[in-house]
Amino acid sequence: MTGLTIWTYDWVPEGPRGFVRDLRLRWACEEAGLDYAIATVPFDGRETNHLDRQPFGQVPYLSDGSVEMFESGAGLLHIAGKSEALMPSDATGKAQTLQWTLAALNSIEMVTLPWWFLALSGDESSALSGWVAKRLYQLETVLAGREWLAADRFTVADLLMADVLRIPKVRSFGQRPASEAFVARLTDRPAFRKAHADQISQFEAADRTRAQATA
Amino acid sequence: MTGLTIWTYDWVPEGPRGFVRDLRLRWACEEAGLDYAIATVPFDGRETNHLDRQPFGQVPYLSDGSVEMFESGAGLLHIAGKSEALMPSDATGKAQTLQWTLAALNSIEMVTLPWWFLALSGDESSALSGWVAKRLYQLETVLAGREWLAADRFTVADLLMADVLRIPKVRSFGQRPASEAFVARLTDRPAFRKAHADQISQFEAADRTRAQATA
């Protein structure tokens, strides 16, 4: 594949549909108006069937000509480097965007995702709960004072933070009206809605293929 | 301050000395041969005394002329953008470096840090243990096959991954000889040793200042 290609699973169960992280990359390409293709790796055997491309057995990964890369955050920064729509080119705007992109991954998701995982495993009141509360309310204070995280405009940092915050269990954590308005505003963008609908459609089409294969 | 300045606490207790994340940024500057200054914010009152500079009340943050930014990962990428010593400038090398830098933060530290925090809170056998084991052994497989994570040479990705892996509780997790050799090799670099010694010295000097103030 010579153009920008986003790799994801060929199928996933209903639970994660709309949340598989290829959505972050689809959304970024839609915002930037970049052409991209979707390619797939089998969900069955995913733990080992693409370790040569993604050593943790996950998706997404990206190919772009001779460049191949995994980690959705890295893929986002790679795509953002192609478009002013995602990443301002001035030094201050770029630094702010980088800072909030990394904050989404390493200050918010680093706490919310393990907390969510523990809750899923039956531990609803882990010691992470207090940490989640603290970080989410600190972020609420930030979002109460501004429309966008960086550079007074939409950037890839908003896209990623909204994707981290829109996980239902995180979204419904406490009363955080500014954060809720932020998520609602971001996920109402046409580029998000297109990316989301495309991911759902892909997996629904795979349901039909799988049903035919076993018919 | 007009040059590159790394902000950290004016003092910390003995426990975190040698591990406060300003070390990541010091280390990067030392590797790149960049001039930098250290500036401090009081440890006492840290939860609220610098929220205008770091909305989560943490350190480090960075100033570089008119640019200000927090998140150690973002600061590393900012510094890496100044020096080929940290980040190759060719497209493939840059993508690999970005990918492994983000993997250190969002695939490894996102699991190991909450796991460490839970253990510190008395929960030694949280459901995160299995996730930690899986990720660390997947990484061990990668490190068994190569000396450097990206581009067949030292990059900021090695620096960050080594800093994530050198936390004692993580470092001693299971038998992972390639990971141990990686951490030993990276932390034996003169730039790490200088950065580490400088951080320790700063906090030891602060001990003396505090002792005089209360004498």
From TrEMBL, chains A, B:
Question: Which Pfam families does the record associate with it?
Answer: GST_C, GST_N
Query: Where is each GST C-terminal domain found?
Result: 90-213
Q: Which domain of life is it from?
A: Bacteria
The chain positions of domain GST N-terminal read 9-87
Q: Which PROSITE patterns match?
A: GST_CTER, GST_NTER
Q: Which InterPro entries match?
A: Glutathione-S-Trfase_C-like, Glutathione-S-Trfase_C_sf, Glutathione_S-Trfase, Glutathione_S-Trfase_N, GST_C, Thioredoxin-like_sf
Under the heading PANTHER family, the entry gives: GLUTATHIONE S-TRANSFERASE GSTA, GLUTATHIONE S-TRANSFERASE-RELATED
Q: Which family does it belong to?
A: Belongs to the GST superfamily.
Kindly provide the name given to this protein in its UniProt entry.
Glutathione S-transferase family protein
What species is this protein from? Novosphingobium tardum
